[in-house]
Amino acid sequence: MSDKGSLKAGTKVRVIGAGLAGSEAAWQLANRGIEVDLFEMRPVRETDAHVTENCAELVCSNSFRSDDSETNAVGVLHRELRNSSSLIMKCADEHQIPAGSALAVDRDGFSAAVTQHLNDHPLINIRREEVTEVSPDEGPVIIATGPLTSPALSNYIAKMTGSDKLAFFDAIAPIIYRDSINMDICWEQSRYDKVGPGGTGKDYINCPMDQEQYSQFLDALIEGDVAEFKQWEQDTPYFNGCLPIEVMAARGRETLRHGPMKPRGLTNAHNPAVKAYAVVQLRQDNALGTLYNMVGFQTKLKYGNQSDIFRMIPGLEDARFARLGGLHRNTFLNSPSLLNPDLSLKSAPFLRFAGQITGVEGYVESTAIGLMAGLFLASELTGKPMATPPITTAFGALLSHITLHAVSETFQPMNVNFGLMPVPEDIEPPRLEDGTPAKGKQKLFLRKRNRQKAYTHRADADFNAWNSAL
After folding, report:
1. β-strand partners of 63
2. CATH number of the domain at 13-165+333-419, please?
3. Which distant-in-sequence residues (6+ apart) come within 8 Å of 115 by Cβ?
4. 300, 343, 423, 461: which has the highest count of C-beta atoms within 10 A?
5. For 387-406, how does the pLDDT look when each residue is reduced to its tens digit (9 = 90+)?
6. CA–CA separation, 308 vs 114, rounded Å?
7. Would residue 340 be called left, alpha or beta, if left means φ above 0 and alpha means ψ between -120 and 50 degrees?
8. Euclidean distance between the first and final Cα of the chain, in Å?
């Protein structure tokens, strides 16, 4: 932790940006008795992706991804957020909708709830105005403006960091009205019939393709007209975790069949004997079940092309689109070279950064960094020392990656994953229930499962020890 002794308890904190990270940071600070001015430029200044003025609006998917804390790093992060009294996770849990083993939310109900909680907190003042620069004379600041930081503030940040901005493109998938999907062709099923939170094992609508249909669809994707990039967007790399569907298609004719259109774990309820060559999955997008988004179908295709091409998908011939796909520019810092382990800027420690702008990718990852930025600043202002979370936890793995362990020369946004944690020493050998060694495919399965559990169980124990000391 860096020494910033000029800050004193009772100082009002400014949090810039009321997305997931900013909302979480403000909540954590206020719950520790610290007054917060939470700045949100919408609706005074709009963005290319938002459609409401609510805090924590979800502009891409409505999924918080896997909620499995036994075998998945994202599920571990969910658990750690819940155990840290996260506002974002509280509202997500209250507004969850069926999505197999994932945690998906009614996006409007979720963001409305976050906004209401923030408005109701006596120590949080939401200010609807654009911030273009900050000064240490006004006290400590957390910038959590996310991937859609305004040009004026982006320019200021670039000057403050003394480095060029890094940028990538993040794409939005289309949303379809449920009653326009042909269920005589499509069927409801989660992959491998897996039941998740609030789900039934039939939480996705599946659209099957045979080989000829897949080939024709692929040709149309590759040949489709895409929206032109602006001059300042040229040569900006995509983030591999959210590639446009047409970019994936151009990488090889089998890419989509092994990615968002993989048929594994799915059986056509209308014709169980025939294996689909490829499958397009649609996931429920609101609590009413009237809207479904196309999983993995982020796109830069022009709107006219999108409607024509996506209606080639069996079952979507008459699809009506509540929202077509799009693409927006994301910005992020080269955090390993710029930030201290407490998320403060090395060259101006009154200033902290949180959320996607620090180089994490994903809703829950952004939330976690916002939560930690709030905790670190609250610790400093209240004079209560706070250690950083262990790297064996999801919190610590993310924090360590963006501030310590990533290579600054090749730094790119990262989702939470077990690869950010050290390998556990006590992984159980693959054995059957009777204690005999497993063999063949069962051995491979148990080895993987035991390895995952070694990570998650260690993370749970280490997080609880760290959290109890706060």
Report:
1. 104
2. 3.50.50.60
3. 54, 55, 56
4. 343
5. 999 999 999 999 999 999 88
6. 37
7. beta
8. 15
Q: Which helix (H) or strand (E) holds 30?
A: helix 20-30
Q: What is the pTM of this model?
A: 0.82
Task: Determine the longest span between alpha carbons in the chain, in angstroms.
Answer: 72
The CA radius of gyration of the chain, in Å to the nearest whole number, is 23
Q: Are 397 and 419 in contact (CB under 8 A)?
A: no
> Is the fold of 13-165+333-419 the same as that of 171-329?
no
3-state secondary structure of 368: helix
Hey, where are the domains in the chain? 13-165+333-419, 171-329, 424-468
Strand, coil or helix: what is 126? strand
Place of tokens 């390895």: 451
432 contacts 442 by C-beta, under 8 angstroms: yes
pLDDT digits (tens, 9 = 90+) for 446-469: 999 999 999 999 999 999 999 999
E strand or H helix that includes residue 207: strand 204-209
> What is the spatial distance between Cα 386 and Cα 419, in angstroms, rounded to a whole number?
25
Orientation of helix 107-120 relative to helix 87-94, angle to 10°: 140
**Mind listing the pLDDT tens digit for each residue in 309-367?**
999 999 999 999 988 888 766 788 999 999 999 999 999 999 999 999 999 989 999 99
Tell me how long the chain is. Answer: 470
- Residue 356 token pair: 């996607």
The class level of CATH for 171-329 reads mainly beta
Give pLDDT tens digits for 153-166: 988 998 888 766 56
Per the structure block, which two tokens stand in for 439?
């063999």
